[in-house]
Amino acid sequence: MNTFELQDFNKRIGLNTDLENISKQICNQYNLGSFISNELIIIGYEDYNYCLTTTNGKYCVKIFNNTRTKKDIVNYLERIRAVANSQINSPKPLKLNNDIVLELDYKNNHYDICVFEYIDGKNYFELNQKANKETIKELAKQTAMINQLDIKPDFIYDSWAIINFEQEYKNKRKYVSDKYKKEFDRLLTELKDINFDKLPKGFVHGDIISTNVMRDRNNKIWIIDFAVSNYLPRIIDLAVIFCNMCLDNNSKENTYENIALLISEYNKYLPLTEYELSTFSTFYKLANAMHILQTQYIAKTEGDSEENQYWLNEGIVGYSFSEEKALEKIVKIKAK
């Protein structure tokens, strides 16, 4: 990582000292042993995440972006507590004085910090892989467990969330290439025609994508980062998985098979309604459209990156697979 990129990450938390100094404070507060090293996790657009190695082992540290309000952080912590008390495969947060957050003041700066257990593995973005059949089955199971959590947290606005497509497209339409403007105009009409009152709702992760799905050395699947989870139509979680983890960029047929498998498996744990299935094609297109919209906006306003190009390509390929008749056939594979 060059100096400019590092400075860009440091701006997220207003870092005005060597990160090692913050890590030593964390080690002392949590009794994690002596500091050895830090390794910044450069994937992701939001918070400041890194791996902390100490004489006691490894840990994942999240320092909240300083643009997050106190309310945002309280909302996030509510979500993490609910997940931590469940059987969902997600890294557990470390406790400090019976809480899961460290409020650290250091050199005239304030940091809100969560420390999580370290998962010895890599996410699917780092692996440069998509889900195989067994992983899709596990994702269906984990997603159903997430959607059944008894929690209705305060709403957190996420600019990438499908639910916010109308507002985001209105604000950023001028940055979208002409090729997609007419497509997205029609898609917005489809979205407005959906009766959200008829869609079953639940606790939704909202971002089950390759950067937030890990595979450890024992091939166990882990879901990470509930920062943008909300109480929303549960079909949203499936749509997000459809457009990335189920996507085979080189095969439309394999992509359709993966999507059908995810629907069938999920339906074993939480039966999907006919109305949910009828909205499937719209949500699938919305998930891909969001990747195109946001990455084109970022490229033109903040500068491009390898990760940004990855998500743009995912959106373009996924959207090109959104043939109405093919998608309608998929939903008919619903498990009995």
Short account of what is shown:
The chain has 336 residues and is α+β, with helices and mostly antiparallel strands. The protein has helices at 3-11, 19-30, 70-84, 124-127, 133-147, 165-172, 178-193, 235-242, 252-269, 274-278, 280-301, 306-320, 324-331; strands at residues 35-41, 48-54, 57-63, 102-106, 109-117, 121-123, 201-204, 213-216, 221-223, 230-233. It has a five-stranded antiparallel β-sheet, covered by helices on one side. Strands 6-8-9 form a three-stranded antiparallel β-sheet. The chain has a two-stranded antiparallel sheet with strand order 7-10.
Can you describe this structure?
By secondary structure, the chain is an alpha+beta fold. It folds into two domains: 3-118, Phosphorylase Kinase, domain 1, CATH 3.30.200; 123-331, Alpha-Beta Complex (Aminoglycoside 3'-phosphotransferase, Chain: A, domain 2), CATH 3.90.1200.10. 46% of the residues lie in helices and 16% in strands. The chain contains 13 helices and ten strands.
